[in-house]
Design a protein that fits this description.
Elements lengths: L1 H22 L5 E8 L2 E3 L2 E5 L3 E8 L5 E12 L2 E8 H5 L4 E6 L6 E4 L6 E5 L4 E7 L6 E6 L6 H4 L3 E7 L1
The structure holds copper (II) ion.
Length: 166
């Protein structure tokens, strides 16, 4: 009986200590983002510096969709074509991308040919995850957007807000 009590006391201590240990570092989060014509759901993300984030991208639509993170939309031939400032470049981070399901079209990571933004394209019916650590350089307000079909998706409202706090 005494041994049991000692063991349960010890486990309470272990739980308390590990709770203290993790207080400084934000818990890793996993967020599912549904992609469709022409939305991201949820359309806003709140991330914390120091957090390990996994985004699961599910394309439920009939078209290929992409996701980019940045700010200041750049135009090419008067069409929205990506961001002047890429969030991952600002943070010195390259997300690790895993394709879970290809979908109808190729799911791939590519850099926009006109600039260096990090992009994941998910084919119709496809799924992919992207994992990254949120760094200091990423603190602030950002946007996520899809610029597929010459910016038509972006104009149709396929964008959202990303807030990275300390
Ligand atoms: Cu799209």
């Amino acid at each position: 009986m005494r041994i049991l009590r000692t063991i349960s006391l010890l486990s309470v201590l272990v739980v308390l200590l590990s709770a203290c240990g993790t207080a400084a570092t934000p818990e890793p989060v996993s967020i599912t983002i549904e992609m469709d014509e022409f939305t991201f759901t949820p359309a806003s993300l709140d991330l914390k510096v120091g957090q390990r984030v996994t985004l699961e991208l599910n394309n439920n639509g009939a078209l290929a969709h992409e996701i980019m993170f940045g700010r200041q939309v750049m135009n090419e031939n008067n069409r929205p074509a990506g961001y002047m400032e890429d969030m991952f470049a600002a943070g010195g981070v390259e997300p690790e991308v895993n394709i879970i399901e290809e979908g109808d079209l190729t799911t791939s990571t590519e850099t926009h040919k006109e600039h260096e933004g990090f992009m994941v394209i998910v084919g119709a019916g496809g799924r992919a995850t992207m994992t990254f650590d949120v760094t200091e350089g990423m603190a602030g307000e950002w946007e996520m957007g899809c610029f597929e079909q010459d910016g038509v998706h972006y104009d149709a409202g396929m964008l959202g807000t990303v807030t990275v706090s300390q």
